[in-house]
Design brief:
Blueprint lengths: L16 H16 L21 H21 L4 H16 L2 H15 L3 H9 L5 H23 L10 H30 L8 H4 L5 H18 L2 H26 L4 H23 L3
Helix pairs in contact: 2-3, 2-7, 3-6, 4-5, 4-6, 4-11, 6-7, 6-11, 7-9, 7-10, 7-11, 9-10, 10-11
C-alpha cells in the first residue's frame, strides 16, 4: 500500500460548514468589537471572508446600546441622559474603533496635500484639529438623532406603553443602523483597492463578491423586518448614497481603502441611517 501524498488534504481536518460560520463570526467580533472572544484564530488574510457577518455584529452593538437606553429610561433617567449612556455603551463595545478611524481619516484627508502625506498623517496616533471636529460633529449628531427619535415617540407597535415606545424606537433604530453601516463597510472594502500594502485592511485580504452581497442582503433584510416602510426606504437609500460618496472620496484622496477609511464609512453611514429613520418618524 502506497503512502498518501503529503500535500493531499486530510478530510478529517477539514472544518465543517458550521465550524466555518462560527469561525467567521469570531473573526468579525474580534475585528469590530472589544468583546473577549475565547480561543485564537490566525486572522491575517482571512478577515475578508467574514465580512458577510458584519451586519450581525452591528445588531449586537445596537442591542447593547438599546438595552442601556431601555434600562436607564425604566429607572427614571431622562431621554438625554439615556441617550448619552447609550452612546457610551456602544463606544465601550467597539473600543471606539470606528470613531478613531473617522478621526484619523478626517485628519489625513483634511491635513495632507499629497497621497503619501495623507497616509502618513492617518498613521499618526495623535489627533489633529480635523479629527477633533469630526468626532464632535458625529457624536453630537448621534446624540441629537437618538434624542429626537425618543422624543418623537416613534412606536413600532401601538400596544406598547410610552416608556417601551421610547426604548423600542431606539433599539430598532440602533439595530437597523448598526447592520446597515457594517454592510457599508463590507461594500467599501470590496469596491476599493488597498491604499497601502501593509495596512490592517490590506492584511485581511480581498473581499469576495459573494461575501459582500451576503452582507448587503443580510443588512437589508434586518432593516426591512424592523423598520416601517418609509423609514426602511429612507435609511437604505441614505446609506447607499453615503457609502458611494465615501468610496469616491477615499478613491480621490488616497486611491483606496485603509482600516481608518472603513471606520469612517461605518460612522458616516450609521449617522445617515439614524437621521433617515428620525426623518421618517416625523411623518408617522
Amino acid at each position: 500500500m502506497t503512502d498518501p501524498r503529503p500535500d493531499s488534504p486530510d478530510p478529517y481536518q477539514q472544518p465543517s460548514r458550521r465550524q466555518r460560520w462560527f469561525d467567521d463570526l469570531r473573526l468579525a467580533l474580534m475585528l469590530l468589537t472589544r468583546l473577549p472572544i475565547p480561543g485564537g484564530i490566525h486572522v491575517e488574510g482571512q478577515v475578508a471572508r467574514a465580512v458577510w457577518l458584519f451586519p450581525l455584529v452591528g445588531v449586537l452593538v445596537g442591542l447593547g446600546g438599546g438595552a442601556v437606553f431601555y434600562a436607564a429610561n425604566r429607572i427614571g433617567l431622562g431621554i438625554s441622559t439615556s441617550a448619552l449612556l447609550t452612546i457610551g455603551m456602544q463606544v465601550l463595545l467597539t473600543g471606539a474603533l470606528h470613531e478613531d478611524g473617522l478621526a484619523d481619516t478626517a485628519d489625513g484627508f483634511g491635513g495632507g496635500r499629497t497621497r503619501e502625506r495623507k497616509l502618513e498623517i492617518m498613521r499618526d496616533s495623535r489627533i489633529g484639529t480635523y479629527g477633533v471636529v469630526a468626532l464632535l460633529l458625529i457624536l453630537s449628531l448621534r446624540f441629537s438623532a437618538l434624542q429626537e427619535l425618543a422624543s418623537n415617540l416613534l412606536s413600532i407597535s401601538d400596544e406598547l406603553d410610552e416608556t417601551i415606545s421610547h426604548a423600542g424606537a431606539i433599539i430598532v433604530a440602533l439595530v437597523a443602523a448598526g447592520a446597515l453601516s457594517r454592510a457599508a463597510m463590507a461594500a467599501a472594502w470590496y469596491l476599493l483597492p488597498a491604499a497601502r500594502p501593509d495596512g490592517l485592511a490590506a492584511s485581511g485580504g480581498s473581499v469576495p463578491l459573494p461575501s459582500a452581497l451576503l452582507a448587503l442582503g443580510l443588512a437589508i433584510a434586518i432593516a426591512f423586518l424592523l423598520l416601517p416602510g418609509t423609514a426602511f426606504m429612507l435609511a437604505v437609500a441614505g446609506v447607499a448614497a453615503m457609502t458611494l460618496a465615501m468610496v469616491l472620496l477615499a478613491h480621490r484622496q488616497i486611491g483606496g481603502h485603509t482600516g481608518d477609511v472603513l471606520g469612517a464609512v461605518q460612522q458616516a453611514t450609521e449617522i445617515t441611517a439614524l437621521l433617515a429613520i428620525g426623518a421618517a418618524t416625523l411623518q408617522v
